[in-house]
Amino acid sequence: MDTVTQAALGAAVGGAVLGRRLGRKAVLIGAGLGTLPDLDVLIDYGDAVANVTEHRGFSHSLFVLTGLATLLATFTQRFAAARDISRLRWWAFFALCLLTHPLLDALTTYGTQLWWPLEVRPAAWPVVFIIDPLVTLPLLIGVATALATGNGQRAPGWGLALACAYLMLAAGAKTLVTQRLEPVLAEQGLESAPRLVQPTPFNILLWRATLIDGDRHHEALIGVFDGDEPPALETFRRGAELEPAALATRHGERLAWFAAPFLRYEVQEHAGRETLVATDLRLGFPGFYPFSFTLATRDGDTWQPVAASVQLPSPQRADRDALSRLAGRLLDTEPAFCTSRFVAPQWHIAIPGHC
């Protein structure tokens, strides 16, 4: 999630745990702890693929943050002026302020390495977009009330309760749209295809489903208020014939660990050379994928891995039009909206009966 939300979450948790005893201090310390894990963005790991895939790594590990909370609780209990607060209470304060950060991040699409340093893929159970005002506002109102009144516990507690209720509502909305998608997948023989269902920007009423089917990937938009209208699939090429060459590079292998199978491969002209590029299909929107990386350059009939991957700029064409049309789809004023309008023609596969 964004920094404002994470700071507000940490502040609200801090107030709920120790607000009665520490007042505004609990809220302010909690805000600082809530933003601490994201300081890893200041680390340069040497190239674009490493920077993206290492983010939400060690600093978001439940093991690392639990250990840090234990150290902070031990130090604070020994040296803080508030001698009546037990070490266990301090530990709960630090642990909850720190651990709620990666747990909330794991409810978005990006992927969070909760179990670092274990070699398991990043956790992602997307039920909320990385920025959602209805998660953030209750937390901010609770925190602002606590800072204004000096009562550090009650208002942050209510803010937390409302934010959690919204996340539960989001999980229910995802279940609903997934159930609507199932018959369409069964009809198309895609029941076992890898899928990702996630909310579209800033809301939980319109959801995007992405499915991988060999060299093809399918997209569907599903609204909570679509009723009995079956979701319409759009089909695109994925460039799977380039996947073996991509996986032969360390950057391609790392991206596959991070995002596979939701990757698209293509050859682009970059720095005057034919370049193998991988794009993360999970993040962004068809036609507006922000995460594309160079993997290798062509040398005769072979691909030579690049020493340092570069992130390519994302296309900006018609982005306002796309967002406005998404809003129209959300409000059901443009029910026939298809994402293929914003995708380069060579990627779209027109199939009768599909969007």
Mean pLDDT: 92
Radius of gyration, in angstroms, nearest whole number: 23 Å
Number of helices: 10
The stretches of 5 or more residues where confidence is low (pLDDT under 50) are: none
Helix-and-strand structural type: alpha+beta
Compressed to H and E, one letter per element, the order equals: HHHHHHHEEEEHHEEEEEHE
Strand fraction: 15-25%
Strand order within the widest beta sheet:
1-2-3-4-10
Organism: Billgrantia gudaonensis
Keywords: Membrane, Transmembrane, Transmembrane helix
Pfam families: YdjM
Protein name: Inner membrane protein
3D structure, described in words:
The chain has 355 residues and is α+β, with helices and mostly antiparallel strands. It has 2 domains: 168 residues, no CATH class; 151 residues, no CATH class. The chain is 44% helix and 16% strand. It has a 5-stranded antiparallel beta sheet with strand order 1-2-3-4-10. Strands 5, 6, 7, 8 and 9 form a 5-stranded antiparallel beta sheet that branches. A hairpin with a 2-residue loop joins strand 7 and strand 8.
Question: Notable features of this structure?
Answer:
single chain; 355 residues; alpha+beta; 2 domains; 5-stranded antiparallel beta sheet; 10 helices; 10 strands; globular
Brief summary:
The protein is of the alpha+beta class and 355 residues long. The chain has helices at residues 3-22, 24-35, 48-54, 62-79, 87-105, 133-149, 154-188, 243-247, 250-259, 319-330; strands at residues 195-199, 206-213, 216-223, 234-237, 263-270, 273-280, 292-299, 302-305, 311-312, 348-349. The radius of gyration is 23 Å and the shape is globular.
